């Protein structure tokens, strides 16, 4: 009996999975890329190229920071975005406080290339437990004056950090004037006015921002209370959810829940490709 062999059926090769997008990391006002280290470490472990952004005017002198505007800061983010797109094709963005506002501004300008946003401790109002009650009303009036814009707002305890050990390290760095490691020891009203100008620029644009967003906020945020994330979630035009954190203050990327912030961020970015 002759056995006839059956021709092998060709199998098309599976398309290679797209590599994870680059992750842009944007620190806060008067801050430093070191604030985003936990996110950078987790993102790199998950295979993401990591692009830390150092904002214009930051990590130097107080005069450098006072001379920079929100448009300078956004230009820093734009340059990092353009380089990441050229090298990796896709980006997702994580930002803390001012960095979260800048992440939204980037998504507004580049909806086709910014695939996801992780927005940490975003301040639409200064109404956290560590802020004097009349600040939301009086601060805009103060910043409209020359004295207010030149006034130095000195960083003070608890520095947005609940963990006493990390708070002590941060305080020591600020006392040494190590702005690269610990951020600025003080910022002027001019910088706060620039942050507010960026916020006012963004508010009417939020409904047009459809990029998926993870909004992460501490219940005990000492700078921006719960109304900020709720208002942001309601205003954004794209899918979003709020992750509430306990046992930490404003600087959630440094505080006791930093590892959870990192894990949830990486999981959220992975879900966008699912």
Automatic annotation (TrEMBL):
Keyword Metal-binding assigned: no
One Pfam family recorded for the sequence: Hydrolase_4
Serine aminopeptidase S33 domain sequence ranges: 21-256
Highest taxon of the lineage: Bacteria
Keywords for this protein: Hydrolase
InterPro entries the record matches: AB_hydrolase_fold, Carboxylesterase_BioH, Esterase_lipase, Hydrolase_4
GO molecular function: hydrolase activity
The UniProt record lists the keyword Hydrolase: yes
Protein name: Alpha/beta hydrolase
Species the sequence originates in: Phaeospirillum tilakii
């Amino acid at each position: 009996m002759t056995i006839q062999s059956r021709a092998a059926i060709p199998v098309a090769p599976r398309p290679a999975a797209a590599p994870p997008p680059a992750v842009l990391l944007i620190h806060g006002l008067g801050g430093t890329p070191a604030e985003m280290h936990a996110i950078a470490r987790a993102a790199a472990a998950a295979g993401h190229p990591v692009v830390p952004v150092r904002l214009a005017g930051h990590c130097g002198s107080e005069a450098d920071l006072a001379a920079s505007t929100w448009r300078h800061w956004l230009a820093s983010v734009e340059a990092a975005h353009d380089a990441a797109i050229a090298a990796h094709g896709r980006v997702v963005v994580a930002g803390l406080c001012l960095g979260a506002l800048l992440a939204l501004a980037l998504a507004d300008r580049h909806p086709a290339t910014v695939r996801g946003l992780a927005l940490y401790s975003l301040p639409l109002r200064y109404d956290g437990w560590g802020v004097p009650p009349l600040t939301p009303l009086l601060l805009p009036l103060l910043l409209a004056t020359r004295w207010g814009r030149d006034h130095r707002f000195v960083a003070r305890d608890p520095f947005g950090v609940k963990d006493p050990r990390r708070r002590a390290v941060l305080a020591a760095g600020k006392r040494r004037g190590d702005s690269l490691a610990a951020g600025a020891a003080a910022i002027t009203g001019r910088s706060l006015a620039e942050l507010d100008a960026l916020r006012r620029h963004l508010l009417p644009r939020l409904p047009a921002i459809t990029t998926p967003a993870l909004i992460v906020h501490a219940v005990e945020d000492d700078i921006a209370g719960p109304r900020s994330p709720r208002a942001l979630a309601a205003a954004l035009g794209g899918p979003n959810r709020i992750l509430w954190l306990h046992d930490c203050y404003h600087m959630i990327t440094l505080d006791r829940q930093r590892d959870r912030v990192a894990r949830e961020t990486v999981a959220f970015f992975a879900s966008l490709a699912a």
